[in-house]
Design brief:
Radius of gyration of chain A: 21 Å
Number of helices of chain B: 1
Distance between the termini of chain A: 79 Å
Number of helices of chain A: 14
Order of helices and strands of chain B: EH
Number of domains of chain A: 2
Number of strands of chain B: 1
Structural class of chain B: mainly alpha
Low-confidence stretches of chain B: none
Oligomer: heterodimer
């Protein structure tokens, strides 16, 4: 018999479902990207045609999806060995890494082209930079070579508000860069808190996360330093007029709580002894300060950007004048 | 005799669903490009009309 039998063993992608491709785009990361981009667009001082704004946000979301797909294509080998990522389509063999790469590349092309058409070349260029930076500089190079991987990798996740701002205004200014700075400085304490209680997972695959290379004590100290910087930068938009009273109160209170959480973590022994993590929010008693800070960091970023969205979405912040001309 | 590749029923069904998803995505992209074109065209026509109006107003007003 000469017939070829094309089964799932011939190519893993033969059995891939559309939902596997959706998973390839990291929908949870996409939702955060879209949320911060909406805030960047709402805070921009220029009104955009609603349909163009909607399409621009869709293109930014697709660009984030492209980054996710390219990242999974590159990291398929290590994702398969880590508990947190072993169910990803490329890790469990539902989609071949080469197919994921092709999917990501096509998606990247469409999203950049779409943003250039719906907005402008500056926004499209920033989106292209973000995708390439995440897929090449972070995934292919920094992630496996330096324990500062997530510090620089965080830049890709921080840029969406600036891309959205550029889409609306055609330019960049201090305000969108402050939003970028907030997410950039937020990323290390967020991921290192997580890494403190799933360090074994990263160590197993040779990814040099800070807790594995420098130890838990250094990581806890670094988290505290970044948390203080975050609390300071968090209130900075009030001084440029981007944030109003609601934002100032939110950023100040949550910033202090963030630092308090980091101090509690610095005084703990979280990460000194790492058990096998059972999940993102499942941690032993010693690792709880790390787990709590990780969970709080998500709330912090959401609340900060939500406050900006409320102020700019409804224009309420301009009705209350802050002293010394703060708040616009 | 040429060998026809045999595809399992499961793989064929998955391929069908992927093809539908791809068709929807491509049609969506076409719709998006069409929508962008219409919006930009509308914006450009308005800008042009405003410029023409400003130019004619400037030429109609007497020189100082």
């Amino acid at each position: 018999m000469t017939d070829l039998a094309l089964s799932s063993t011939a190519s893993p992608t033969a059995l891939a479902e559309p939902r596997d491709y959706l998973a390839l785009m990291k929908p949870r990361v996409m939702s955060l990207v879209v949320f911060t981009a909406i805030v960047g667009m709402a805070a921009a001082p220029v009104d955009m045609h609603p349909l163009r704004a909607l399409i621009s946000l869709l293109m930014i979301a697709l660009g984030a999806g492209a980054s996710g797909a390219l990242n999974m294509a590159v990291d398929a080998d290590i994702d398969a060995q880590m508990k947190r990522t072993r169910m990803r389509p490329t890790a469990r063999g539902a989609i071949a890494p080469a197919d994921a790469f092709g999917f990501g590349a096509v998606l990247a092309m469409f999203s950049v082209l779409g943003l250039a058409l719906s907005a402008n070349y500056l926004a499209a260029g920033l989106l292209a930079f973000t995708i390439v930076f995440y897929a090449v500089a972070y995934s292919m190079w920094m992630k496996r070579r330096t324990d500062q991987n997530i510090v620089w990798g965080g830049l890709a996740g921080a840029l969406p508000p600036a891309i959205a701002w550029a889409a609306a205004t055609g330019s960049l200014s201090l305000d969108p860069l402050l939003l970028v700075a907030i997410i950039f400085v937020w990323t290390p304490p967020h991921f290192w808190a997580l890494a403190l209680y799933i360090a074994k997972d990263y160590a197993k695959v040779g990814v040099p996360m800070l807790p594995a290379t420098q130890g838990a004590a250094v990581t806890r100290k670094q988290i505290l330093v970044y948390s203080i910087a975050l609390a300071v930068i968090g209130v900075a938009p009030t001084f440029t007029g981007l944030g109003g009273v609601l934002y100032l109160v939110t950023a100040a209170v949550l910033g202090l709580l963030f630092v308090a959480g980091a101090v509690r973590l610095a005084r703990s022994t979280a990460g000194d002894v790492v058990d096998e993590a059972k999940g993102l929010y499942a941690a032993g008693p010693e690792a709880r300060p790390a787990r709590d800070l990780f969970a709080f960091s998500i709330l912090y970023l959401f609340a900060l950007f939500a406050a900006l969205l409320v102020e700019h979405g409804f224009g309420g912040y301009r009705t209350i004048a802050l002293p010394f001309g703060w708040g616009g | 005799m040429s060998a026809e590749p045999q595809v399992s029923a499961k793989a064929q069904a998955a391929r069908g669903r992927r093809n539908w998803a791809l068709a929807v995505a491509l049609l969506g992209f076409v719709a998006v490009i069409f929508a962008i074109t219409m919006v930009r065209l509308q914006e450009n026509i308005r800008t042009r009309a405003a410029l023409d109006k400003a130019q004619s107003a400037a030429s109609a007003s007497p020189a100082p």
